[in-house]
Amino acid sequence: xxxxxxxxxxxxxxxxxxxxxxxxxxxxxxxxxxxxxxxxxxxxxxxxxxxxxxxxxxxxxxxxxxxxxxxxxxxxxxxxxxxxxxxxxxxxxxxxxxxxxxxxxxxxxxxxxxxxxxxxxxxxxxxxxxxxxxxxxxxxxxxxxxxxxxxxxxxxxxxxxxxxxxxxxxxxxxxxxxxxxxxxxxxxxxxxxxxxxxxxxxxxxxxxxxxxxxxxxxxxxxxxxxxxxxxxxxxxxxxxxxxxxxxxxxxxxxxxxxxxxxxxxxxxxxxxxxxxxxxxxxxxxxxxxxxxxxxxxxxxxxxxxxxxxxxxxxxxxxxxxxxxxxxxxxxxxxxxxxxxxxxxxxxxxxxxxxxxxxxxxxxxxxxxxxxxxxxxxxxxxxxxxxxxxxxxxxxxxxxxxxxxxxxxxxxxxxxxxxxxxxxxxxxxxxxxxxxxxxxxxxxxxxxxxxxxxxxxxxxxx
Length: 461
Ligand SMILES: [Zn+2]
Prior knowledge:
Layout: H1 5-27, H2 39-55, E1 59-63, E2 70-76, E3 82-88, E4 108-112, E5 115-119, H3 127-144, E6 150-156, H4 166-172, H5 174-177, E7 181-184, E8 196-201, E9 203-212, E10 218-219, H6 230-239, H7 262-270, H8 275-280, H9 295-300, E11 304-312, E12 322-323, E13 326-335, H10 341-353, E14 361-370, E15 373-374, H11 380-392, E16 398-402, H12 407-416, E17 420-423, E18 438-440, H13 441-460
Parallel strand pairs: 3-6, 3-7, 7-17, 8-16
Antiparallel strand pairs: 1-2, 2-6, 4-5, 5-18, 8-15, 8-17, 9-13, 9-14, 10-12, 11-13
């Protein structure tokens, strides 16, 4: 451990009660971004952050957008690695209010069987998380008067309402925001003892297919046998999307899907992921993806095709001998590596179209297309941060994947041209977006210490 770091960690330990007071102040501001009635509260939370960052010596300001403001700040070292930190200060609505055990905007420190927690809307998502980073900076500055890295903050006030202003803002301010690497604190621990750095996020392509057959719904006694049934066509099409090894059959589907490295495989095996418990928690038992792949690979590093909805014929109570005029399905693909969502969409449509009988016609509706985000973990900051996290937590940190997408990481890559390290300390039971949201004091305390270590490690990487 570096001699510069030790007093910073000590300072964090001593200052924890005051850090909780500051977090509570921010949590008391009901910055619900989706509700116009709270517009002034969102602005107040932004002001609170601007003031706090200015107090720390950063050059902070509130930038107007068509929606809620962006808090930006610059400071730290003149030279050295330049980090961009992202978090969001808006929160989800609190209803149903009657399910809260205490007021959502009156933070409480509570004892629970798993340790102390701070309970309030935003305690975990994302005010508690973003304050872990600000507190780490505060401790560095208190002890050394400066930071060993150059720092830019970008704190959003619209994350919980779809980030409508984010992309235009990033585009308009790309030069000012560009850094060597981004830090995003809006994710969770792998488990209570194991931190992760999310380095791969799957992309998504959605398509709706509508197969039209007869001009109207028919009586299956009068027409059944003679008339083509679009539900039958759809069933055949959907059934053919996977082979009996669980692989997707579209030609070229796996062309741009990389294998993970041996090192990453070893990290994942070291996580001791319990696939049975994972599936057991939803009443299942058997991994249903590609044969020969671990459950973690299936959700982190392998692409999938899922049928999200099927609609055709009579689906009400009782029975109706109908031969439907149309049949439709919503199908989505989670994408990895360099898979191109537009290429996959074209392959899917070609595959479907080739199976439509001459008597039927097919129509498609596109529902979004975003590629996977894969970070260049060869950048030395990644390994430095992984080591720093491993020094703080009981179990070693791993580079992990995320089955779903976190759009901000993709925007930083495509608009600002930089990789992101997604590091967070939330736990699965934090009840984010739900009543009684909480953040473990252990997450908060170790989270601050983790960032202090990461700042130190990255400054030398
Ligand atoms: Zn969040």
